[in-house]
Amino acid sequence: MINYDVYEQEILKGNIKNGYVFCGLDEEFIKDGIDLIVKKEVPEEFKELNLIRIDGMNTNYDEIMNACETMPFMGDKKVVIIYRANFLQDKSDSSGTKIYNEIKNYVSDLPPYTILIMYYLLNDKRDRPNKNKKLATLGKFLHVVHFDKLKKDKYIKKVEGVFKEKGKQIGRVELAYFCEKVQNNFDIIKREADKLINYCNDREIKKADIDLLMASSSEDDVFDLVELIAIKKIDKAIDIMKEILYKSDQHMLIISSIQKHFLRLYEIKLKLAKGKRVDDFVAEYRLPQFVCEKLISQTSRFSERQLAELVKLCVNTETKLKSTGIDKTMEMEFLLINTLMVKK
What we know:
Elements (H helix, E strand, L loop, with lengths): L1 E2 H9 L6 E6 L2 H15 L5 H4 E5 L5 H9 L8 E6 L10 H13 L7 E8 L11 H6 L4 E5 L4 H14 L6 H10 L4 H15 L6 H7 L3 H14 L3 H14 L3 H23 L4 H8 L3 H11 L4 H18 L6 H11 L6
Parallel strand pairs: 1-6, 2-5, 2-6, 3-4, 4-5
Helix pairs in contact: 11-12, 11-13, 12-17, 13-15, 13-16, 14-15, 16-17
């Protein structure tokens, strides 16, 4: 298994193999990695014929095999992409296991004119692809690439490339500030870049514009934490809470942020019942539309009663944190465990 840096260098050297398996959390990042091969191997005028995309969640072995066996049209190579190939996950259903076993036997002898690329998305940041036995087996025949987070300099350079592709220059100071504020996910990065470019139009981007339009990374952490509470994955929620505390050892600030988030979800839940829509929340909360859409989606995981009780739990925990001589981290863990007791 190799990382993105090694993979990128190999592609730039022209050292392109016949088969790849990509995995990571960031689908846009993976798509950018695929484009490195596509741009080198498939001329624009032949993309409709020599570039095949197959939905890995709705396919079968015969469809994949037939796509790989068909000769390229007026070219030396064709690229077959199996996106969201969930049958590559360490655990899959019976149909996924069947496809995987058939693919495993096939990829040992791919046609020389075919470049097969399969990718799947990791469940979360604690999902370790190096422990996936399926990848270890496929790695004997295909190159497995983990699209992990880029190192700081590479990350900033790639984000700068996003602005350049959109025809917009951004200053070095503003670029570094943008990278600090934005979530390390290229789907979000591209959307945030679009917002900034459209908002600033022909003038240069300033730090004040970034502050105005972007949610903070701490808000993203709290959103992820609440999402795990909603699906009752408390062990993972505790892991995220510890990561937040590691970045900012401020228990009162974190409990206050969680409380405000539950309170906002409660408010949105009530207003949705009265007929409010996403545009109303964009105007009221002065948040980007996609953030409001995420909040609306998250409210569906809770009842009004649940949200009210969760706010009370946060208030009680905040009161305890103000006391002296207590283990604050343990109190935060108790809060997360107690959310399991709140019924709909």
